[in-house]
Amino acid sequence: MFVQVIQGQVTDAEQAHAAMDRWMEELAPEAPGWLGTTAGVTADGRFIALARFESADAARRNSESPAQDKWWHEFSSLFSGDAAFYDSEDITPAMYGDPDMAGFVQVIRGRVSNPERVRELLATDPTPWLALRPEVIGRTFALFDDDRFATTFYFTSEAEAREGERKEPPAELKALVDELDSLDAEPPEFFDLKQPWLYSPAST
């Protein structure tokens, strides 16, 4: 899998949403290898999108399309500054349900000090986590070349996610969380998407 993250400040969330809907209607059917996109705008106007493709080649072919170039030229005018792009083929997915059914999505962007150890911790048995946090539909962890990452959590709803955050985990899970937190090389940035835009080939 290949993931491209696009982020930046937008001037109008509704126009950005309409442009993404237009991409879905007009360009998605002609984008072979596209697996889905999770996007949205935070309350303070920060846009983030995570586009998933079968491979980097599939993503490149899509970006080279004249129709894609035209759409992006129009969409990029909604940014108040430059958009940032991050590409990764180092993906650790964990889906426990249908992410397209998520009512709330949280994307965490940051940098880790020990990527190998993070991968090991994320590969642990999810059963205890799912028992504690049944509102989690899935998670995708993308690692970039500079050890920066994007973790996307899919929740049934924001209310249930906030309730889950207040739960006290058992000792073994708390130790895992504490170790993951200790591997942050810098304070992470949180993107809370209260009204996520969820696109997939199944909805074309």
TrEMBL record:
It comes from the Bacteria. InterPro entries: Dimeric_a/b-barrel. This is Antibiotic biosynthesis monooxygenase. It comes from Kribbella pratensis.
